[in-house]
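Reply to thread "Modeling small-molecule complexes from scratch"

Following up on the discussion above, here's a worked example others can learn from. I took a protein sequence and the SMILES for magnesium ion and predicted the complex. Inputs first:
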Amino acid sequence: MAATIPHAGRPVDRRGILIELGGTALVVFALTVSLVGFHIKDISGGIALDLRFVDVASAVAIAIVVRGWLILMRHGHHRVVAASAAAVAAVLVVSLLFGGAGVQPWLPFKAQLLQWLLAVLSAGFAIGSAVRMARERRPVLSGAGAAQDGAQDGAAPDEQAALMDRVSAQVQRNALWIGAVLFLAAAAFPFMPGVNLQYLDIAVLVLTYIMLGWGLNIVVGLAGLLDLGYVAFYAVGAYSFALFASPDSPLLQDLGWTEGVSFWLCLPFAGLMAALAGVALGFPVLRLRGDYLAIVTLGFGEMIRVTLLNFYSLTKGPDGISNIPPPSLLGYSTQSKMDEETLENTTEFHTAMGWEFDQADTTILLYFVILAMALATNFFTVRVRKLPVGRAWEALREDEIACRSLGINPTNTKLTAFGFGAMFGGFAGSFFATRQTFVSPESFTFIESAVILAIVVLGGFGSQIGVVVAAFLLIGLPEIFRELQEYRMLFFGGSMVLIMLWRPAGLLAHREPTIRMHGRRARASTGSGG
Amino acid sequence: MTEAAGAETRSGRDVMLDIRGVETFYGRIQALRGVDIEVCRGEIVTLIGANGAGKSTLLMTVCGDPRAAAGRITLDGVDITYKATFEIVRMGLAQAPEGRRIFPRMTVRENLQLGATTGDEEHFDGDLERVYDLFPILRNRADQRGGTLSGGEQQMLAIGRALMSRPRLLLLDEPSLGLAPMIVKQIFEVVAEINNAGTTVFLVEQNAYHALRLADRGYVMANGRIILSGTGEELLANAEVRAAYLEGGH
Ligand SMILES: Nc1ncnc2c1ncn2[C@@H]1O[C@H](COP(=O)(O)OP(=O)(O)O)[C@@H](O)[C@H]1O
Ligand SMILES: [Mg+2]
């Protein structure tokens, strides 16, 4: 380090660099020591603490090296970074591919995936600095000198933001095409080669969250009401559904019914109940604004959960309601008969079709049900934005006083937004119940609300495709990377922080006008006539 | 033309908006201290006064936000003192509020559509054309977001949006604020045009010269009280008004 010459016109601030490196090390240490450093494992007769300080040390070392690379790049030493990062990447790749078990103890982490991510990261640094090196050559040759690189470096984040803005504008403009392609891809997904039950399950989960995101987007994105208790409506939907669909439900047993009600009847009922819950909550609290509304909705979410937990005679409390059947198809049950004695006199779909029962088929059915439900939510949102009520929602988000002075009744407008948002939450809850075949209050904790809200925020308030991308990032990726165990949460938090730094308004935050006239020229010609 | 029409109706004392002894508070700060104002059908009435006199507060109090703590406000003989804002607006009153308060992330057309919230579907296209004819620039900006308009265009949009509800009484709060003289002139011309078409106008202004020239009658407000009233010409000629509101500016 001492040998490196200060770059033209930019003195090296050694103390600053040391503080920066030390700070990085400290932050990473503080984060990893609690999250990764202690691992609780089950041993016979209790649990034990597994101390993993090697992992912590590796994480800190890696953070220091990466930060060092960043500092070097900032000072224009791209060559050093390119060379060292390429070397690290090469060593990692070679030892991962050919090293076998003997090398493993020498590598920084135990999880294979982490080693690979590290290799990719180093390779990224090597390529990035090489590109910059090449880019800086040109001004040097043309005589502009190194003074420019400062400006270039400084402009880079702006350039990136502008690029992303353009991407999101482009996405919005071509929403129809992108939507169509996504739809076709989604429809074909279960039949693609290489798609196994695990991927299908993840897809169903992601779609559920997309639907929840779209539903919450009505409340938060369109109407601008910060709802931290959306999970309450998810729960009301799930329990309303379960209470009528499951033959084990205390309610049906009280009524003396031995069979559950069909999915297709319970679904609208659950949506209605959730919408009613939304209106019932909305009525007293919608006078509150911003933070206060958020706090009350948060409380409502907890109230619902605690009620479900304690209203034992109706909900069976923590035991939950089990035995919820999957959706029926054309009047036939889709359950396998093997695990059901109560269904003796019903005909199953697979018997009617002369198929063997296959768990994958049920999952495919679930996949298409949630796909249809999510699309219905999206269709509703897209349509309603063009109707007076949807426009009033958006206007309310922008300026409540102006809305009132235009004759909009803010309370009713908010209530409809809350009610519709809750209704879609209720539908999603029904689906959750039928998919899990079991509901219990545990599934409806605050963290669910937080994740759904994170999807909406990350996607960019009000952006429909943004929600899809965000749901994939927040729900899909962690599921796919399940083998990373607790590191997942580090990635989750880390990527949230990065995205909020990089795109504080959300990934695809960009609102195009929802209404277009027939083009500029047509308008100009009719305009001069009037 | 407007003056003649105004005089006629005034002789018949066809009072449309009647503000009597209105007092308004912001917490413990009293902003209005017993205000009496009459606006007759067909008139342009202006309210002038220095910054902080309470003009905007009066317009907002007429709309019910904040509420009058004392006094009575009637519109066409109906007591609206305690009515909800949106109900008052549905009675045929519209306001282009202070600061314009257009919806910045929505297009010009959407803003105008929101103005028509209380109106009939069938009038919409005609009303939209009428607003575009009054402010042709809005037609060219129809698909542009409100927030990207210039100040003058935003003011036009705010007035146009208020007109979309076909108000019988239009409240304008400082439409000339921060605008170039050319645009101010244009906006005052449009206000006269709107009035000629049969809409009563209550205009709050700091730009006293233009406002008093345009108006049939005017009121002068200071510290939450009406200190002077009279016809536009009377007030323009008044020494006190000249000293306080006209000298230096024009
Ligand atoms: N929201 C508010 N909260 C507290 N005081 C306010 C508020 N709005 C206005 N005021 C006060 O009320 C008085 C009248 O204000 P305003 O009606 O805006 O005056 P004008 O429109 O004539 O300039 C001022 O003293 C102002 O400071
Ligand atoms: Mg004012």
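What I'd highlight from this example: The two ends of chain A are 74 Å apart (CA to CA). Residues 1-9, 140-155, 511-530 of chain A have pLDDT under 50 and may be disordered. Questions welcome below.
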